[in-house]
Amino acid sequence: MTALFALATAVLWGLADFGGGLLTRKIPALTVVVVSQVVAVVVLGAVVLGTGAWHEADPRLWFAVAAGLVGPVAMLSFYKALALGPMGVVSPLGSLGVVVPVAAGLMLGERPGPGQFAGIAVAVVGIVLAGGPELRGAPVQRQAVVLTLVAAFGFGAVMALIAQASTTITGLFLALFVQRVTNVAVGGAALWAQSRRGAPALPEGTGPRILWGLLPALAFVGLADVAANGTYSVAAQNGPVTMAAVLSSLYPVVTALAAFAVLKERLRTVQAAGAGLALAGTVLLAAG
Predict the structure, then answer these.
(1) pTM
(2) Long-range pairs, 7-10, Cβ under 8 A, ≥24
């Protein structure tokens, strides 16, 4: 069950990142984050009301609040790093966030077997290579590296925190709702501050109407991200966190394959090799 839900997480995160990447070509990244999370809040709010999940409120929800505070910071750091580039360095570095939940699992006493350790090592190398790292000395600004490492730590921290935020399915709905409300509060404040500094929330010459046209895609991105957090939490609670974290972090492979299938972007040799290694690591982990 852990492997199944973790792989579902990778698919959902990979597709959400692909959709978010496409949307940022049309509207600012911060607007994509805030609006997609607003949609998620509305849907999750209905689910919480319908299931009576609010009855399961307890101190564990502070983990969800923490995840909601860290998430937007990580996402904005990642987008800023991508803008500074080169993407072939930023993307693989960003995937190193898997180290955080893996380390958390080891600190909690998990001890994978030799086959699983081998699977973790092979999968992590594959994940990094699937991002298409620049291997010939591409110039990199120090700020881009720092921002990428901040983003990687943030992504990993969100994975570790959300896994601790609930112990039941209905409790998970409430935790995800609290996380998303926090996301919107932090992201909305940042969007307001950005607008006050003169950076428009929407492209020049457009108005809110552009959001209506993009609403289905924004909803998909927000709900896929929520679903990924949910499936990851289930995976981490029903099996080794180390396995759940590594398998869930295969999402760069999914994003690369989506770009290949939809945008006809050719996979570089290093990306194809990385995808193959990531899948090999998955087999070793699942078999272990």
Answers:
(1) 0.81
(2) 7/247, 7/248, 7/250, 7/282, 8/228, 8/231, 9/228, 9/231, 9/232, 9/235, 9/244, 9/247, 9/248, 9/251, 10/247, 10/248, 10/249, 10/250, 10/251, 10/253, 10/254
